[in-house]
User: What shape does this take?
Amino acid sequence: MSTVEMEVFSNPQLIVLTILMFTGGEVFTSVVGLHLSKYQLKRRWTNGGLVSAAHAHHIEVMSTAETKQDSENLESGNETHTQRDASLDLKLLKSNSIRFLGFVVLGYLFLAHFLGISLVLFYLAIVSSASNVLKTKGLNKVTFSFFTIVSTFASCGFVPTNENMMVFSKNSGLLLILVPQVLLGNTLFPPCLRFSVWFLGKFFKKEESGYLLSESNKGEIGYLHLLPSLHSSLLVVTVFGFILIQFILFCSMEWNSDALSGLNSFQKIVGVLYQVVNTRHTGETIVDLSIVSPAILVLFIVMMYLPPYTSFLPVNDNPQTSGRPKKRRGKLLEDLIFSQLSYLIIFIILICITERKKMKEDPLNFNALNIVVEVISAYGNVGFTTGYSCKRQLQPDSNCKDKWYGFSGKWSDEGKIILIVVMFFGRLKKFNMDGGKAWILL
Assistant: This one.
């Protein structure tokens, strides 16, 4: 969510923002978590597993010196030793599998960024219209390429230009380069990761790859993004299904609207595709959302609200729910926890209270729908905004100047603080996905 124009940042500041976006991205933080869990597992295995192995070896040596009368005890000792060896091998395989998965995710991360940055630089080198935009705005091509790819892959939605991607609406090649980055870093990360593990397992680390892809070990790794095979397949179908629905509705309602004016048919198709892909959850835009029809805005709100790994899963194959014991409902705290939607309604009401004066004086800009778009966009970590226009003021202010930043940039400090809370709440929503179950609606 931007409250200042992006072109006010200098080149060193953009580099700092690029580093922050890269290290704060979901994929990068998951890599850090994998390596931490690997070291914790290795420490526990070293403290417990190696001692057990040495003890088992000692039992084996002592057992070989036993007499024939103690043959039954010897067989029992060998059986115990075999079981301990198997347990030790399983722990070692688990540790190696987590290590392998960490390197796969790290390679996936850097390969996606390398290809994306290389393609953007190549496009800017051969297409003068895109490079001229950067030259006019005083932006460095390399900085722009790194910043945009990192922001797109990490689902931040920031672009170094004030107008976001609207200034590149006619550069269909650039938009097509960014579309895979949106999907690879967000909604399609689990199926692409599973495919990467399977593909690399064909050439090396077959045992570790088999362990990671095994349905029986799906709860052992504890990596949220490595979904089961069926769930990953249905996730792909769901993602492209949502894109198709949005694409058809957007084209049918906005094809001849002012939002897509000045574009030819091919540019409109690519632009609409880019726009609907960004609703989950990157938030880059080529159109002014304030002139888009309310029906499309409501559709975008629904898309922004849905978590990135939402899928139609008709069977109980969710590793987070299957085989998990039901929680006791006797605890007062659990009963008082609301659902995600309930908290969002509370946040919207609070912001309507803090901005009630502006909603009364400037209703065309400060209307309920624009506030809902801003709040759900913040919750979904998307970044879509309807912006603010001085032309929509009922009582024109001679000192008002249109700025290329988000609608929340015109909010009061109290409203901005609430929106910051909403962004943190949306980032951590996976820890409260079971809330609100004490409420029974009949």
The longest helix spans residues 71-126. Residues 6-305 form one domain.
